[in-house]
Write a structure and sequence with these properties.
The radius of gyration is 50 Å and the shape is elongated. The protein is α+β, with helices and mostly antiparallel strands. Mean pLDDT is 84; it is low at 29-41, 111-115 and 117-123. Helix content is 30%, strand content 31%. It folds into three domains: 49-150, no CATH class; 212-333, Roll (Ubiquitin-like (UB roll)); 346-572, no CATH class.
Length: 573
């Protein structure tokens, strides 16, 4: 006979049954999960739309194609930007706006996944999602450039500059510009809408250099800089620089939100070099016409120094006060031979003579006469010095700026370098004549040229014939030479003036022509033959009378006798 089961045995049997049931449920759920995964595959959850385009239930590739086709029209539609009552059209492609179709499908759930949430989404209603929009920042910035020129205004930094030794300031001004970050977000959100329109977001922009920065720069540097000259002392030679001179090498440049003093080192070196003489050589004083009046040009000491000694302390020097605006510069100094005081003693104060001649048009005359005048102009003769046109002008070569023109040789016209320079010689001779200077050497043309004053003219030839005169007065003489070039319809003009202190009033008489000699006829067959219609030679006498200024009595007289040879008739074969 069997024994009845105890309570623990019954409980053990019940636990096995529950375990079996749970295990069966797990197996059932797992099988269902696998079946759901297999049926869903990689398709987009059913009922899903992206930017209103239905792509649910499609494979990712099919969903991408559907989305691209569905958004094509909207993706190409211009975006309207509005601001301050104006509007601008923005081409989305040019602005770097684009739809990332693959990313949009992936965000919508396209692709295989064991995630139960994705499986649940697939078998339930899908969502209406936004497309993934990308923005190329560089393309957007380029597309916005013309819009930004029309909208808002740039901030303006304050500035401080120098003009002719004065301090000039520019007030800072706040600006407005497009908030590109905010605009990017709004474009991405609005891009695919039916009527894409965005109001441009503008933000205030403060200048980097504000009023406080300007005020600090003016008070601490600019105003002190222009307050007084600075003095550089080279040995025993002080050189004073005025604010209108040295402020040209100064600047206040923006740096990290401040205006920082700067000096143009090359310009400073040139400024100091000009003040003390080029290449360390002394420069003699002289006299020059300034504004039509004679003015002493001061001498400059010759100074050899290290420019770095000035450069390193100059910005500090211009902000000092009083006697502190003086800098001792280690230097070697050479004094000029002809000082400023010497130049003043010349007493070149007034015009003592002037003479003008005219010449017919020829390009070679314009070149040669103009070049000779350029070299002669500004010559200063000290008392007792002798002027030589050949020594002053130099040989008439192409390298010296001269060209070929007609000269007189053996009584006929031939071509040679420097033709026409005798026009300058004649004008210069007459200016000397009426200034009362001593005639040392002059030679009239061999035959008479009717545009020159008869008996008062001179020719020159390099190495053979010169025009020389001596300043036999107790005062200096400044020679001013000017040329107005000829034109095809007008004559050229040459004027030479002498500036000094008047010693003589000059008068002159010219005799009748006499002792005429007839021309000959020459027949030439050379390549350089130029035909000419001859005329007679003659003799003439000119007298120069010297009177003290304002007096009638003739102190002395000087005779000039000239014999002109005939100008021969030339026949060319």
């Amino acid at each position: 006979m069997s024994e009845p089961q105890t309570a623990p045995s019954r409980e053990k049997a019940g636990g096995r049954a529950v375990l079996l049931v749970l295990l069966g449920l797990v197996v059932l759920v797992g099988v269902g999960w696998v079946v759901a995964y297999a049926l869903a595959g990689d398709k987009v959850p059913r009922g899903t739309t992206v930017a209103g385009v239905p792509i649910g239930g499609r494979t990712p590739d099919a969903a991408v194609r559907t989305l691209r086709e569905g958004l094509a029209d909207r993706a190409d539609r211009p975006v309207t930007l509005t601001a301050e009552g104006g509007s601008f059209e923005l081409d989305p492609a040019a602005a770097g706006l684009a739809v990332d179709h693959e990313a949009s499908v992936a965000e919508a759930g396209g692709g295989r996944s064991w995630d139960p949430r994705r499986l649940w989404a697939y078998y339930t209603d899908g969502d209406d999602l936004d497309a993934v929009v990308t923005v190329d920042d560089s393309a957007l910035a380029e597309a916005l450039a013309p819009v930004e020129r029309e909208v808002g205004r740039p901030a303006r930094d304050g500035a401080v500059r120098f003009e002719a030794g004065r301090v000039v300031t520019t007030d800072p001004r706040a600006g407005q510009e497009v908030d590109v970050d905010a605009l990017r977000d709004e474009l991405a959100a609005t891009y695919l809408s039916e009527d894409p329109s965005v109001e441009l977001p503008l933000v205030d922009v403060e200048p980097e250099i504000d009023e406080a920065d300007v005020r600090t720069a003016v008070q601490e540097f600019a105003n002190p800089a222009v307050s007084a000259p600075v003095t550089l002392v080279f040995g025993d030679a002080p050189v004073q620089l005025r604010p209108r001179e040295f402020t040209e090498v100064l600047a206040l440049a923006p740096e990290d939100g401040e205006l920082v003093p700067e000096v143009d080192e090359q310009a400073l070196e040139k400024l100091v070099g000009d003040a003390v003489g080029d290449d360390g050589a002394p420069v003699d004083a002289t006299v020059a016409l300034v504004g039509g009046e004679p003015e002493v040009v001061p001498a400059e000491p010759g100074v050899t120094y290290d420019p770095g000694d000035v450069r390193e302390t100059f910005l500090d020097l211009v902000t000092r006060e009083g006697d502190e605006r003086r800098l001792e510069v280690e230097a070697r100094v050479a004094e000029p031979e002809f000082t400023t005081a010497d130049a003043r003693k010349l007493r070149i104060t007034e015009q003592v003579s002037t003479f003008t001649t005219y010449y017919p048009h020829a390009d070679y005359r314009n070149i040669n006469i103009g070049r000779a005048a350029e070299i002669v102009d500004g010559t200063v003769l000290k008392p007792g010095e002798t002027f030589s046109l050949n020594d002053t002008v130099g040989e008439r070569t192409a390298e010296n700026g001269f060209t070929e023109g007609f000269v007189i040789n053996d009584g006929i016209l031939v071509e040679d370098l420097g033709g026409g320079v005798s026009q300058m010689a004649t004008t210069l001779f007459n200016a000397m004549f009426f200034a009362g200077l001593e005639d040392v050497e002059h030679k009239p043309h061999s035959f008479y040229i009717d545009r020159y004053p008869v008996g008062r003219e001179a020719t020159v030839a390099w190495g053979a014939v010169d025009l020389r005169f001596r300043n036999d007065t107790p005062y200096g003489v400044l020679i001013d030479a000017e040329v107005t070039p000829s034109t095809p319809g007008g004559q050229g003009v040459v004027t030479v003036s002498m500036w000094s202190t008047k010693v003589w009033d000059i008068e002159t008489t010219t005799s009748e022509r006499y002792a005429f000699t007839p021309p000959q006829t020459r027949t030439l067959s050379t390549d350089d033959c130029y035909p000419n219609t001859g005329y007679s030679g003659f003799q003439v006498d000119v007298v120069r009378y010297f009177k003290e200024p304002g007096q009638d009595e003739v102190v002395r007289r000087e005779n000039f006798h000239t014999t002109y040879t005939p100008s021969d008739t030339v026949v060319c074969e």
